[in-house]
Amino acid sequence: MFLPTRISQRLTMGSVVLLLLTGLAVFGVMSLRGQPRVVAASQELIEQTGSSIVRQLALKLASIEGITLSLAHLAEVLPHEQALYLNSLPNLIDNNGDLTIAGGGIWPEPDKFVAGSIRHSFFWARGSDNLLAYSDDYNAPSGPGYHNDPWYTGARTSSVSQCLWSEAYQDLVTKVAMVTCSVPYRLTGTFAGVATIDLKLDDLAKFLTEHGNVTDGYAFALDQAGNILHFPETNKSDTLLRFTDLVGQLPWLAPVETALKQTSINKVVSVSLNKDGRLNQASEVSLFVMPDTGWVIGLVTPKTRVTGLARELTFDILLFLLPLLAILLSLAWLSGKKLLAQLEETTDQIASLGSGSLGANVELQIQRDDEIGALRRAVNTYAGTLRAMLDLITQEAKKIQFEATQLSGLSRKLAQRAEQQRLESAQLAAAITQMSSSAMEVANNTNDCAATAQSSLIVVREGQTRVAASNTSIEALSGEIANATKVISQLAQDSQKVGAVLDVIKAISEQTNLLALNAAIEAARAGDQGRGFAVVADEVRTLAGRTQDSANEISTMINALQSASRLAVQAMQAGESRTVHAVAEAEGAANSLSSTVQSFDDISQRAQQIALAAQQQSQVTQEINELAVRINSISEDNSLDATALDVLSLEMQKLSDRLININRA
């Protein structure tokens, strides 16, 4: 799966995905939640429309029922005078010229109006001139009579306070469909006749056509017997068409026929038609039953009217919401791009800081006081701090470079002096070896002199001569020992100077180590950008540690050399004093030999003492020889340490050069 790595690409993809998800969410919510509710609301609206049609029809029928009840009540109270009936009833039946009333009248029982009169009805019918005209046809003896008609026989047992509506029928002359409202009336508690009003169904057709279009469909009406009171575009015939017959002609109405069997008062039955032949689309049929008449009002609504509102609402919401959301997302995207551009500029400066290509006075412009402005301010502060730190490192590196140069010169001088000391120590060792040999020879000669002192004066004089020569050698030895003492003292002083230089080197290495540690800390704070500098700082710290370790080792050697030098000086001083003493003794011996030639026995004894002193001198010279060898070894070590110190100073100089070059980079 492809996922963008850059935030700008993710922002673009997120905006598009959010727009698509919003559209899908709106469509899903409207389809799953909104459309059912809108359909329910539409269904409720359809039911309200149907109920409104039923109520309006009921009001019309109620007015007809009221007129009929008035006729019945009038028949109960009017005197049985034909003229009075003929004058009183027409105006009531006409109901101020109500053309929906086809006719009406009073239909007395036999012998109830006039004794011996079987048929004595008062009936008015509306003619072609829309005026009511009295008709006596139903009273003709040759006629079938009205007492056996269903509207009359049914009224015999019905309530006197409620209209009994007949089945729909068609007038034989006008071919107009109509229904009759029949109300019985009583005289002295006995059924006396029926009052009727005939209602035309033409206006019912107009009414249903007008109100059926409210739902973009149509309406139809059936009476309680299943006769069609109105159905759009049905052919007129001499007799009323029954709904079952219409189903035979229009099979797509079969579900409605089935639903009619489930109808009842105060219950709305709905049935769906997959293909309404009149609307040429799927439709929803709602059936309403009128309480008083038992008529069924059918309201047909296209399915598109039921669900179309939901789809239209969904489309309107998407049409409004998606462009608005697109505009908002575009604004957010532009803001994000601007923000990312500032972040990229900040990133470039940080990268420049890491690569060392940033100038000394380059700073980010702070144009907004928000998180981006704070970030740029922090970057500028960090850059300034880093520049100051690099300048400080450069200054310290120059100091280290200067000190390293001084140390290099000092180490070279120290190496030269150490080499000179080594050579002089070698010469001193050779001289002491020679002195030791001479001392041994003096001891041997002294013993020989003591042995032969009594044998010959010549031998004594020879011994005197040899004593004089020994005195000269001892004086020379004393001078050499004095010189060696001076050299060793000078070596001790030089060792102290080297120790002072080493203290300077230690201080420099400690300061370098501290600077490297601070540089490593700052590099760690810089993160990945300071990783290279951290490596350099670590190398500097390592070299500083090695310098300090070498300085400590040299310091230890110098301390040992100083201790050995002090011992050598003490031994040389002791040897010098003994040499001086030997010179004095030799001079005394010479004087004694000059003055006491005759006392040879005493000379012999003194010769033995001289031999003993010579042996002691030989031991001392042997010790001095060993000390000179050790001094020579220490001098060689000093020479090596001086060479190592010179190498270390060169490394420190190179390190300072690298630090300066790093800051320049």
Question: Concise description?
Answer:
The chain has 665 residues and is of the alpha+beta class. It is 67% helix and 11% strand.
Structural class: alpha+beta
User: What average pLDDT do the residues reach?
Assistant: 79
Q: What profile does the largest beta sheet have?
A: 7 strands, antiparallel
The CATH homologous superfamily of the largest domain is called PAS domain
Which class of the largest domain in CATH terms?
Answer: Alpha Beta
Tell me roughly what share of residues is in helical segments. Answer: 55-70%
What is the radius of gyration computed over CA atoms, rounded to a whole number of angstroms? Answer: 72 Å
Specify the number of helices: 11
The coarse silhouette is: rod-shaped
Number of distinct beta strands: 12
Q: What's the number of domains?
A: 2
By CATH, the topology of the largest domain is: Beta-Lactamase
Name the CATH architecture of the largest domain.
2-Layer Sandwich
Low-pLDDT ranges: none
Strand content: 5-15%
What string, H for helix and E for strand, traces the elements in order? HHEEEHEEEEHEEHHEEEHHHHH
- N-to-C terminal Cα separation, in Å? 43 Å
Membrane topology: Multi-pass membrane protein
Subcellular location: Cell membrane
Domain Methyl-accepting transducer: 396-632
GO molecular function: transmembrane signaling receptor activity
